[in-house]
Specification:
alpha+beta; 2 domains; two-stranded antiparallel ribbon; 4 helices; about 15% strand; elongated
Length: about 120
């Protein structure tokens, strides 16, 4: 298998259109190709972004988690071990790296967005 990265413009929070980026960046998709899209990109497309400062990260974690496995943050690491959609994940997957002052949450309705992406690519190619 050969992995070929596709250079795109950055998708920026709080909301950006993944389909317009795919429309301009995907030029040749063949039957059998596999397209990898990060959960962060999907979340930005869905507008699952919260401005830093509008809520504390701890409160956001409590709000988003289905369950906190460890109830107190681990001080050296500043994270909670949580459950979200049956996934054991630190801080419910909240990402703030390279997020321009936003907390990026986990995407929602992954099956639905995956279907939309599939249909878009099938229609385009």
């Amino acid at each position: 298998m050969q992995c070929i990265p596709i250079k795109t413009r950055p998708l920026l929070p709080p909301k950006d259109d993944l389909f317009s980026v795919m429309d301009t960046s995907l030029t040749d998709v063949q039957d059998g190709d596999i397209l990898f899209i990060t959960s962060k990109v999907i979340a930005i497309h869905q507008g699952r972004c919260v401005p830093v400062g509008s809520i504390s990260k701890e409160e956001l974690i409590k709000q988003e988690a289905d369950q906190r496995v460890i109830n107190d943050a681990i001080p050296e690491k500043d994270f909670y071990l949580t459950m979200k959609n049956n996934i054991l994940i630190p801080n419910v997957g909240i990402d703030e790296s390279n997020a321009n002052g936003y907390y990026i949450l986990r995407p929602e309705q992954l099956q639905e967005i995956t279907k939309q992406i599939y249909e878009f690519i099938c229609q385009k190619f």
